[in-house]
Amino acid sequence: MNNINPLYTQYTNLLQKAADINYAAAVLGWDQEVYMPPKGAEFRGRQLATLASQAHEMLTSDAYGNLLNELSKLEGLTDSEKSNVRLSLEDYEKNKKLSPEFVEELSRQQSECFNAWIDARKKNDYSIFAPSLAKMIALKRKQAELYGYKAHPYDTLLDDYEKGATVAMLDPVFAGIKEQLPVLLAKIKAAPQVSNDCFHQNFPKQQQWDFGIEVLKRMGFDFEAGRQDYSEHPFTTSFSPADVRITTRVDEDNYASMLWSCIHEGGHGLYEQGLPGEQYGLPLGSAVSLGIHESQSRLWENCIGRGRDFWTCFYPKLQKYFPQQLRTVSLDTFYKACNRVEPSLIRTEADEVTYHFHVMIRYEIEKALIEGSLDIKDIPGKWNELYDKYLGIKPKDDKTGVLQDVHWSHGSFGYFPTYTLGSFYAAQFFHQAQKDVDGLQAQIVNGELAPLLHWLREKIHRHGRMYNSEELCEQVTGQKLDASYFMRYILDKYSGIYGIS
Amino acid sequence: MNNINPLYTQYTNLLQKAADINYAAAVLGWDQEVYMPPKGAEFRGRQLATLASQAHEMLTSDAYGNLLNELSKLEGLTDSEKSNVRLSLEDYEKNKKLSPEFVEELSRQQSECFNAWIDARKKNDYSIFAPSLAKMIALKRKQAELYGYKAHPYDTLLDDYEKGATVAMLDPVFAGIKEQLPVLLAKIKAAPQVSNDCFHQNFPKQQQWDFGIEVLKRMGFDFEAGRQDYSEHPFTTSFSPADVRITTRVDEDNYASMLWSCIHEGGHGLYEQGLPGEQYGLPLGSAVSLGIHESQSRLWENCIGRGRDFWTCFYPKLQKYFPQQLRTVSLDTFYKACNRVEPSLIRTEADEVTYHFHVMIRYEIEKALIEGSLDIKDIPGKWNELYDKYLGIKPKDDKTGVLQDVHWSHGSFGYFPTYTLGSFYAAQFFHQAQKDVDGLQAQIVNGELAPLLHWLREKIHRHGRMYNSEELCEQVTGQKLDASYFMRYILDKYSGIYGIS
After folding, report:
1. Cα B500 to chain centroid, rounded
2. What number is the average pLDDT over the span B263-279?
């Protein structure tokens, strides 16, 4: 490692300085959601905009482009160095396609659109949001044109969150969901419903917090290199692999709210803590994609945290935290309550089975909006029609319908599908872990989660962006993403819970 | 305000962008002391260094210099605009003297030195801190050379915190202290000691916090534009006048620890909240100097918070928070306890009389370190010798001696003297407020602190850096800083408390 090429050093210096600025912006963003007093918002907005434009300027400068082009022709770099340069050049070329003026316009529209969404939600009135959303969609369509695309304009937006993902790849994934999940859902609906009453009791905040911390520690979350705080909407952010922040929320009358967010964000946090610190700020020190990130949170939340093995160890502990609430609730009842399936209107509260209809509906609407085949004013109609069709329910208002998610107000078109990809990757990875890790099930039953984390670190975390999602999936499991792993996982699990043949 | 010169707009845009970056660094600095997990320190150090060098680069660019020079020759600017340009040009010329490499090195050394100090304190071992401190002092001596000086290298460092302050100006101030305060201290020592036992009981954390918040609210601290958190060492920082952060600490067995830090930092916080938001990032939106900043904290802490008038209103409230602890303690006993004079080792816990010996000792050591007449290894010896000489006591270890303050680890040489200047300004300002504000004493007795805050806002806060310390003092009180106000204040107060003629 001592013969580092001076051009490569110049490159890492520049990229790591841009990372310093982006991580600084992440600290400001974290504080904004967690601790900032309300009047601080205005100046915080301009501070974040300045940091963003500073970093953007560094990463789109001609000098940086020339450096990358020179480096990409250079002999004698190590494989890691080559990967960093290749990925940085791809990022550079994509970034360059957007002018600073366009980036600024987009940023301004994001603020306007977010505020309109907040206002519309408060007043429960989509028509307040629609004009801003229309402008945002016009900008996103323009962005797709600027990026350039072969098959579908939406492909270029997907690529921002999941490099290489396309409509051509996702359509069959969602077709499979459309075909198979309704069959399972119909069977579940026909079976006797399981109760989740045990979650809906009074669970004091402090004990919820304490149990959450215990679980995070057992998962391997390093509290010397991270922390958990409260925020209105749980999220994970990181300022380096040595400083990863997760947040949670507490509803004292619904224990499910904190429990799943805590384990879910913990999974994201473990991925961030597992990225290689020596590649700080470089592609190999960064997460692959949102889909792979989500595979980590969902593997922990669903495959582990909603599994019987996990609760075999943790349920007696949980009962000690909440003796009054859970003394008479059996492990079996609790496990079933964790996995109750019920069509509902709110995506973030959905179970593992119906969740993917929520994503599919957004995916179809986004595609249509970006290709221009759906009008902004027709979104709520389309929304209600699709909810009725797939889940058999219809929102009674905009707040529980089309206004529920923040994503569109941020201009994050192409983001939602990564949630489903995450679940699918999670199932396939977890299947592989069971093959690779000797005695994994017994370890989980004993609350020994370190071997699983070790496997994730080795197979996924430590590589950063060395492989893209597809390559990583092949590396780890020997094959490309295959939806049948998720389908088998979900059929096995819910057949047991609902006594379906 | 509609005919703003386009050059002036260019200037404010640039300066406010630099402010965005510096305020971002302040958020990272705040988080570092308040919430950052320990392993985050290393990357945080480099992030802060990058932000510092980015801002420095903007503020030392030739383009900015040319712009300022052009503006300073321009006709037709308003008085405020002229002041901003003049002060910015002075800042620019000073900043230009430090190279970007030097600024970055200094910032990195600050992080290293801070971590070494933390470690040394934990292990109560100065030798762990000494090597980092030696590097820091070498850098500060280099800084003094780069700035250039006429009389004493320390002058240039003083100037960073208190524009215009010099050894030639401070030596007589401290000579006055050396002459007059020992006489008072001897009389106090000869008089019967007052008891502060009432502070040394068990005061539960939550009630301490709650009373602190009540006092801060009554002082006028706006919790919509700021917040209080815990940190090991209380401090104030701000990210705009609309987002001011103060911190405090709690010792459940010594109520004095939180009470004074809370009111003190509250005083700093009020100054920051009172700066004009429309001058964000510009000299007229910034505090005059550390001495003036400290005058605000000390006026609230000492002139108000340790005064009998204040407690006439607040003591019955305090008794309600702590009925068991304070029911049998009279207002007179409590007031005297607030003002017990006793030579002690820890600066931040010192009373108003002995406090200035602590500052003087640091001042003398700093001067010697910067002029090169004292070696790093001899600091503890010198420290102990001076404590023995002026206060008649010697620290038994490093933690209660030379390692007690964070300042040197930040490279803040020239900072300590502003504490004494602050007390002196506070006494002079408070004397003036009593003349200017009709019925001030009665208002304080009634817990009406708004008129005093209004006076401070009008006379001091709203001007930003329009006037320097000396000019401001003359503006407010009709004369330059005059140490006799402090001496009179302290003699009057302590003669009463200790029954000295």
Report:
1. 31
2. 98
